[in-house]
Structure formats: structure tokens, C-alpha cells
Design brief:
- The chain has one helix and no strands.
- By secondary structure, it is low in regular secondary structure.
- The radius of gyration is 20 Å and the shape is elongated.
- The termini are far apart.
């Protein structure tokens, strides 16, 4: 009788570790184009996905901390709630991507295109957006504290309760039309 209980306990433990461990270590979305070499499978964090075709991929809530996404095509991808601290997305195509409540602190988005991307509620604390194209992007409730926005295209950006790089709020009546234009540091 004891052997049966111990055996059942071991089986339950094995299933728990397999299921929970699998959820945290390897996630390969069904709509990711891995290409011929298969290098674009996602085993996160610190993954090298540079140059991969991930347009339209559902990468919501993944831990992409420290991942390399240089020149990666993420057009229209769902990155809501993604944890992307220190990720490098230099020259990535992020047009129309959804970053709602994503954490992009210390990320590199220099020369990336984020036209009409949704960054509502996202944290971009100390993020490098130098020479990026954010035209038409929605930065409502986003935190851009200490973000680098040198030569960044901010044409038609939606500012609404956005924390500016200098720590002020876009909604403050400081004469810049309720934007962060006077508060880019």
C-alpha cells in the first residue's frame, strides 16, 4: 500500500515539474517562421533572434530579457506584457507591434521603426530610442524616464499621461501642447 502512495506521489511530482518547467523554459509560438536553419525557435531569455521573421507572432508575456533581436521583423507582433529588459532591437521593424504593459527598461531600440506601435503602459526606463521612428505610436501611460530620444521621429505620437525622459508628465501645462517635446532632457 505504501509503495502505491509513493509511486503516485512521484508521478504527480514528475507531471508538475514537466508542465511547470516546460512553461518557464521553452516557448515556441506556432506562428513563428523558423526558416530553413531553425535558428528562430524561441528558448528564452538571452536568445539570439537577430534577423528572424517574427511578423505577427504572439510573444505576449515572454521573458526576452537580454535577447538579441537586431534587424528582426516583428511587424504587428503581440509583445504585450513581455519582459524585455536589456534586449537589443537595433534596426528592428516593430511597425504596428503591440507592447501594452511590456517592460523594455535598458533596451536598445536605436534606429528601430515603431510606426503606429502601441506602447500603452509600457516601461521604457533608460531605453535607447536614438534615431528610432515612433511616428504615430501610442505612448499613453508609458514611462520614458531617462530614455534617449536623440533624433527620434516623434511625429503624430499620442501622448497621454506619459512620463517624459526628465520625469515630468506629458499632461503638464508647460507650453509644449501636452507632449514631452520640451522634456526630452
Amino acid at each position: 500500500m505504501n509503495w502505491g502512495i509513493n509511486r503516485l506521489f512521484l508521478i504527480v511530482c514528475f507531471v508538475f515539474v514537466a508542465v511547470v518547467g516546460g512553461l518557464w523554459t521553452t516557448v515556441v509560438p506556432a506562428n513563428v517562421n523558423a526558416g530553413d536553419d531553425g535558428k528562430c525557435g524561441i528558448h528564452v531569455p538571452n536568445e539570439n533572434l537577430s534577423g528572424c521573421q517574427l511578423a505577427g507572432a504572439d510573444l505576449a508575456y515572454l521573458d526576452l530579457t537580454g535577447s538579441l533581436l537586431i534587424g528582426t521583423d516583428l511587424r504587428g507582433a503581440n509583445l504585450s506584457g513581455a519582459y524585455m529588459i536589456n534586449a537589443n532591437m537595433h534596426r528592428a521593424n516593430l511597425n504596428g507591434a503591440y507592447f501594452g504593459i511590456a517592460i523594455l527598461d535598458y533596451a536598445v531600440l536605436s534606429q528601430a521603426t515603431l510606426r503606429e506601435a502601441y506602447l500603452g503602459g509600457a516601461s521604457l526606463w533608460n531605453t535607447n530610442l536614438k534615431e528610432a521612428d515612433l511616428s504615430g505610436a501610442d505612448l499613453s501611460d508609458a514611462n520614458l524616464r531617462y530614455a534617449v530620444l536623440d533624433k527620434t521621429n516623434l511625429d503624430k505620437v499620442i501622448w497621454n499621461n506619459t512620463i517624459c525622459p526628465d520625469g515630468s508628465n506629458s499632461d503638464a501645462p508647460d507650453g509644449d501642447g501636452f507632449t514631452c517635446f520640451y522634456n526630452l532632457e
